[in-house]
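Support case: alpha-D-galactopyranose complex. Customer-provided input:
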Amino acid sequence: MSIARCHLLLLLLSTWDCVGIHVVNGLENGLARTPPMGWMPFERFRCVTDCVRFPKDCISERLIRRTANLLVSEGYAAAGYRYLIIDDCWMEASRDMATHELLPSEDRFPSGMRNLGNYIHSKGLLFGIYHDLGERTCMFQGPGAARHFNLDARTFANWGVDYVKMDGCFASESELDQGYPEFGRALNHTGRPMVYSCSWPYYKARPDFKLIAQHCNLWRFAQDIQDSMASVTNIMMQYSKKQTELAAHAGPGRWNDPDMLVLGNYHLSYDASRLQLAIWSVIAAPLIMTNDLESVRPEIKNLLLNRDIIGINQDPLGQPGHKVLTSHNIQVWIRPVTPVSNFGKKSFAIAFLNLGGFAECPLCPQVYKVQLYRLGLNSRRGYNVMDLFNRSHNFGLYKPKDSFSTRINPEGVTFYKFSVLPPKG
Ligand code: GLA
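Agent response - structure generated as follows:
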């Protein structure tokens, strides 16, 4: 690593202590103290509405009940995935003529949303729903919230909704800037606590993240994720480009949302699946799966249920991490986490990425070696190192001047926790 790069890195690391978690101006509805975890159908099930031809895949109460059952029976709920969020395409094309209330599709949600909400709650899960701030939802399927903010917020509260994903299609920039805060106030006025997920920054040329973090519990900052490694790395790149700003406004109650976890579908390899999970945990992203829980392969399910990695994602410091170093196609991403020593030294989760493309062998494993102090790990008593993908693999104690080396699969990641030592007894 060059000296200039190393200085830049240390500068970055030291600013963690003065920015970020102390910006106390979030929505403060008491919710989402750690990034929300759950499931949402959109990337996997899109807007399939033909339940005759595609009975298992259409957006319907059958899919939602089946997923609720699987979240619980397969152990996902116990691991923390509790928000079951219905995405777009749940509505009738028009509001109720008399009351102007939103109507769920009669064919696909015949029991109604309040009953479905009761079912979700009866499984110990939380109920999320999609809406749009503008004239129509993004898939043109249903009416947006325009001119009906209070009514729609009340409707959601009556249905027992716990989480609202508010999209921003068919709204102008000024409607977005006024509408997101206004709908947030409408939610608060109902008296029912509902997590408020905003797509606001995605629809803005120059988003004001300070303002957005005052009104939303989470916010989408990039385009829709697709089921591919290229899409995952593209979103990571967008995060790293703006990471100082994005991380500064996140913390308990307010999170950057890079979109869903696509693990368990068709295209991510095992290594790429590890990579998405590791980086989503480093940047304190919501862990919202989009997959068919009935057909997730066992090795991918084990990744999704890895308690050590979920522990990093949900770390109580609530401080999002950064990319701190790029050397050829190796990247290092770091997040400060608990435990914190009695001298205020933090522990770290560190992800080492091999993005491939090396001249001598584009898709080979690569060995990467670094002295820990170069990554800002300077607790003189050292760090206990554990492989987050395999907790039985304990590397023992490393001091700041020790070199740590890791062998990283192509288009893959290694991910470790460097824990400060507990106080001397
Ligand atoms: C937008 C959002 C997606 C999804 C679709 C549904 O594209 O970004 O996450 O909600 O709308 O139409």
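The first helix runs from residue 3 to 15.

Case will auto-close in a few days if no follow-up is received.
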